[in-house]
Amino acid sequence: MSETAAFSFSTVPGIVSEPGAALRLGQLVAERFPAIRRVLVVTDPGFLRTGLVDGPRASLECHGMQVAIYSDVAADPPEPVVLAAAEFARRHDAELVIGLGGGSSMDVAKLAAVLAGTKQSLAAMYGIGNVTGARLPLVQVPTTAGTGSEVTNIAIVTTGATTKMGVVAPQLYADLAVLDASLTAGLPSIVTAATGIDAMVHAIEAYTSRHKKNPLSDMLARQALFLLSANIVKACENGQDLAARQAMLLGACLAGQAFSNAPVAAVHALAYPIGGIFHVAHGLSNSLVLPHVLRFNMQAAAGHYADLAGIVVPHVSGSEDARAQALIVAMQQIAKITGIETTLQQVGIAERDLDRLADEAMLQTRLLGNNPRELTREDARAIYAAAL
Ligand SMILES: [Zn+2]
Asked: Cβ(74)–Cβ(101) under 8 Å?
């Protein structure tokens, strides 16, 4: 698209990127919301067990705030979890909500802040732009470097056995995102790899997004890929490398800002059924189909992929096609070096499952519409077959 084409761009008003910042969370909240006395922290039981909630909690209390902790968030949060978190917020008369966790905790925090602030039902909020009221003040503190949920305006809820619904609304942008690598230092390398590749996919898909790609999302996607590709292997090899961890968190955050405005496409559309049916983690699902979707997209997006290869692959040269291929190979190399699964069979998927996967992928029309190349059911099935 032309650099002077009309576009709009939104993001959060405040970001603090600083190792150790969670230990002065109370100060960061009090500076912005001096009147707040009752705070709800939304997290998951696994993160609560790490003891890493204690520091931020003490900091909030030190600044005169009462802290209630809702720690029942589950991965791919089901509707009852969201409703329970909102009820918990109301019961404690919370004035501000803090999401402290991965994408699931941050998504639940977004919806708890909206539901506790309005009388609208969750069912009425699904879809794009359907939230009518204002939310409680919202702060997001990610503990994985992947989803970028701290800076996006979307929350995903599991509404049935394998079905998911999304709430997309400007109210879901937080007031503040706090990026503190010390919260991610304990993550196993497999999780670091899968979530980091997910963030790289956000950047790649934003950069090739069909309708809403714009100069700001491009700039963010490029810088995100630079930070993520330079640090993902380091962060996997030495989880205590705080500089690499901080760079990963910032990269995931920038990629989140990019795809919140220039949305993701077929990689995510084909990854969702893998997660929904086979309970494979989101980052890994994306990584499994990524090279095959990029190869499919080549004829429409080789120029963009070649641009990105210049960031991910040092000294890349050759024709546009050769450089674009180098990006795909580099992404496969990262998956290989970090030791995560690279084929669908390794996560328990067989030939007989491919039709169902293809059928479900085609339901992701919102995402498929962003893909640089039109994708049919036959194409989807062929991509899954290549990934088997
Ligand atoms: Zn993703």
From this structure: no
Ligand 1 center to residue 61 CA distance, Å?
34
Closest CA to 225 of 191, 267, 259: 259
Strands laid side by side in the 15-17 sheet? 15-17, 176-179, 138-142, 96-101, 38-42, 66-70
Q: How far apart are CA 55 and CA 35, in angstroms?
A: 22
Residue 23: half-sphere exposure toward Cβ, Cα within 13 Å: 7
**Tell me: the pLDDT tens digits for 81-98?**
999 999 999 999 999 999
Can you give the pLDDT at residue 160? 82
| CA nearest to 120, candidates 102, 107, 133 | 133
How many angstroms separate the alpha carbon of residue 102 from the centre of ligand 1?
12
Sign of CA dihedral 153, 206, 256, 9: negative
Which residue reads 């696994």 in tokens? 46
The answer for residues whose C-beta is within 8 angstroms of residue 4's C-beta and 6 or more apart is none
Q: How do residues 108-122 score in pLDDT, each as one tens digit?
A: 999 999 999 889 999
Mean per-residue pLDDT, 10-29: 98
Confirm if 105 and 73 have CB atoms less than 8 A apart.
yes
Identify the CA nearest to 100 among candidates 161, 40, 175, 36. 40
Cβ contact 367:268 at 8 Å: yes
> If you measure from the C-alpha of residue 199 to the centroid of ligand 1, how many angstroms do you get, rounded to a whole number?
6
- For ligand 1, the distance from its centroid to the CA atom of residue 72, given in whole angstroms, is 22
**Distance from residue 267's CA to the centre of ligand 1 (Å):** 9
Q: What is the CA(205)–ligand 1 centre distance, in A?
A: 10
* Gap from CA of 197 to ligand 1 centroid (Å): 9
Confidence class for position 2, pLDDT limits 50, 70, 90: low
